[in-house]
Specification:
The complex is a heterodimer. By secondary structure, chain A is mainly α. Chain A has helices at residues 2-7, 25-45, 49-74, 78-108. Chain B has a domain at 280-507. In chain B, helix 17 (396-410) packs across helix 20. Classes of the chains: A mainly alpha, B mainly alpha.
């Protein structure tokens, strides 16, 4: 665990991709953590349902990037397999989200989350 | 390899029924359409029976799992509570449309939602069962999503009112947010240990320095993400709105299924970390313990306090379900204890899940069994606590079910809820969590105030105006579910000790293999690479 964070930060390289030799696990994790944080911030601050949904998708994909980077770091394929399943779930959620949003839009003609305040208390 | 399928026999039975129900729900013959619910019932019975036969602790298939004895208890519990909820669901969707078809309207399969409704119900239960079965993070993630995705649609279609769709959208968005949280947590766990198999994660965590900052961060994110499923702080705030917006029958389902899935997930993941840390070597790692401690204390306090302020029965029950999540978390913090049943917090948690499932289903069923005149002249579900006035005199079965179930939720001896809570108390005391026990005791006292209101309105108050008062719904299944749950709350007390022993056996943690045994395996693995 310590080695993961301090000493050995280079991704395990077999013989491939020498061009990316300078790119370490940290870089990927940084991108992933940034994407995830932007997703959280966007979800909490935006009020348009479509944008909010895209923010959750971005959080999913941030986890995907982290999984692939870890997969390369540990030199096994588990993380990559995980990402395939994550993509499937993300597609299912997208279908569900758009169906629900279109359904509500037909009844209310707005995409503003604040306009739906019938439930309060 | 094929004998491994034994592990998921109950899920396979339910899935076969799901496919059939999807088909016959669209049938043009109304007799075939109305076979959906009975078929679901048969499938759940079969799943309960198959669940009892699931491989237990002595089976070879379960070696290496953190909790080898969990399956028979978990699957039977899920199938039986599902069976209790099922009669309530009858008449939730398509009631007006089926009436129109009876009057002679041409049947249009595009407008029928009955098949989907029961199929989603079963798919969600399959998800809960798979959560309890999981031995891999990928599996666990898929199972959690399988539990949740159908419930979003069930909420949105549960009534034709706009607020149900709003509740569905709200539930979905927060659910997706929570899912992303625990997915990122899973990714970090994988990053810290190099494996998604729970048994390997467990070995990696047991090594010196294995439970490092990245693994802890991952687990904390999982806990926060799963707190959406169990409606705990910090993701509890949706509960009241969603339960109130959803139809009462679906709210009862929401109060059980996602919660059970969340608790099984936490049980399995914390089992991978182990209660072998802390100063005496019998607690969770200090970071996790503190976080769970704060979540548990806040969840019960906030749940009970907010429940005091409500006048809608569904909102009261929603906040009560939040508070009960807090109680169950106490069992998780206490851990497996020293070996006796009374000190086993995990067994207490599983046993309380059973008690909670019966009690809360009964309370929701009693409300669902009643309807009142809506502002637009139609009939709508009751919601206000005023509607419960004098129920015991007018409809004794429903009224008394409500009284018994709310007293049991309060934890009044000698009802089922009391024994569940007692077990949580004893386990927390033997784990040395005295402050948490005090918080829980105070909360139970505060909760008495609103549960006694729920019991007192039907029992002691008088009806004001007969014409405006609620009447029974034409769906008899809801009365049935309420009565069965109330009888269960009283009658299961007789079977307390076998049930507690079963939950104790279900939560026996496999001791970790000695480090010496682990080393050659990992070297062989390295050589293979």
């Amino acid at each position: 665990m310590d080695s993961l964070l301090t000493t050995s930060l280079t991704l395990a390289q077999d013989t491939r991709l020498e061009a990316f030799a300078g790119v370490t696990l940290y870089h990927y994790l940084f991108v992933s953590a940034t994407m995830f944080s932007l997703g959280v911030i966007g979800f909490l601050s935006r009020r348009n349902l479509i944008i909010m949904f895209l923010c959750t998708e971005m959080m999913f994909q941030a986890a995907g990037i982290a999984l692939i980077a870890f997969s390369r770091y540990w030199l096994n394929h588990t993380g990559e397999v995980f990402v395939i399943f994550v993509l499937t779930i993300a597609a299912a959620e997208a279908a569900l989200a758009l169906a629900l949003v279109v359904y509500l839009f037909r009844r209310k003609s707005t995409l503003d989350a604040d306009a739906w305040m019938e439930l309060k208390g | 390899m094929i004998e491994k399928l034994q592990i998921i026999h109950p899920e396979m039975a339910l899935f076969a029924a799901t496919c059939i129900v999807l088909l016959i729900g669209l049938s043009g013959r109304s007799a075939l359409r109305s076979a959906c619910a009975p078929l679901t019932g048969v499938a759940l019975l079969a799943a309960a029976w198959l669940g009892l036969q699931s491989p237990g602790a002595d089976s070879e298939l379960m070696q290496g799992m953190p909790f080898p004895g969990l399956l028979p208890y978990a699957k039977t519990l899920i199938a039986l509570i599902g069976l209790l909820i099922l009669p309530m669901l009858a008449g939730t969707v398509d009631r007006s449309y089926e009436k129109a078809v009876e009057r002679g309207e041409v049947y249009n399969p595009m407008r029928s939602t009955r098949g989907e409704f029961y199929a989603f119900f079963m798919l969600s239960l399959i998800g809960v069962m798979l959560c309890a079965t999981a031995d891999d993070l990928i599996w666990l993630f898929l199972a959690l999503e399988l539990t949740s995705l159908p419930t979003y649609i069930m909420v949105a279609m549960s009534t034709s009112r706009l607020r149900s769709q709003e509740a569905g959208v709200k539930y979905f968005f927060l659910g997706a947010f929570g899912a992303a949280m625990f997915l990122y947590g899973f990714a970090l766990l994988y990053g810290a240990t190099g494996s998604t198999f729970l048994s390997e994660i467990r070995e990696a965590m047991a090594e010196p320095g294995g439970a490092g900052p990245m693994a802890m961060l991952g687990l904390v994110m999982v806990i926060v993400g799963v707190s959406f499923k169990i409606a705990a702080v910090p993701m509890h705030f949706y509960a009241a709105d969603v339960y109130q917006g959803a139809g009462t029958t679906v709210a009862a389902f929401l109060a059980f299924a996602p919660k059970a899935a969340g608790f099984f997930t936490l049980l399995i993941l914390l089992g991978a970390v182990g209660w072998t840390h802390g100063p005496n070597g019998d607690a969770l790692p200090p970071e996790l313990r503190v976080i769970l401690w704060v979540i548990a204390a806040l969840t019960m306090t906030i749940g009970n306090t907010l429940a005091l302020l409500q006048t809608s029965v569904k909102r009261i029950l929603a906040y009560s379900s939040v508070a009960h999540s807090g109680y169950m978390l106490v069992g998780l913090i206490a851990g497996p204890g020293a070996g006796s049943i009374a000190s086993n917090g995990l067994a207490a948690m599983l046993f309380y899940l059973l008690c909670y499932g019966v009690m809360t289903t009964g309370a929701f069923a009693a409300i669902a069994a009643l309807e009142r005149r809506a502002a637009d002249g139609g009939r709508e579900e009751i919601d206000s606590i005023e509607d419960l006035r004098g129920l015991c005199r007018v409809y004794p079965l429903v009224g008394w079910s409500m009284v018994v179930c709310s007293l049991s939720l309060l934890g009044l001896p000698p009802l089922l809820g009391f024994f569940g809570k007692l077990m949580l108390f004893t386990s927390a005391i033997s784990a040395g969590e005295i402050v948490l026990v005090v918080v829980m005791g105070l909360n139970s006292a505060v909760a008495a105030f609103y549960y006694l209101r729920l019991a007192g309105y039907p029992l002691l108050e008088q009806r004001h105006d007969e014409a405006e008062s609620p009447t029974l719904t034409p769906a008899p299944g809801r009365r049935l579910a309420a009565c069965v749950a109330a009888v269960g709350v009283v009658a299961l007390v007789v079977f307390i000790s076998p049930l507690q022993r079963a939950s104790h056996e279900a939560t026996q943690l496999t001791p970790l293999p000695a480090v010496v045994e682990v080393k050659p395996a990992s070297e062989a693995e390295v050589a293979r690479r």
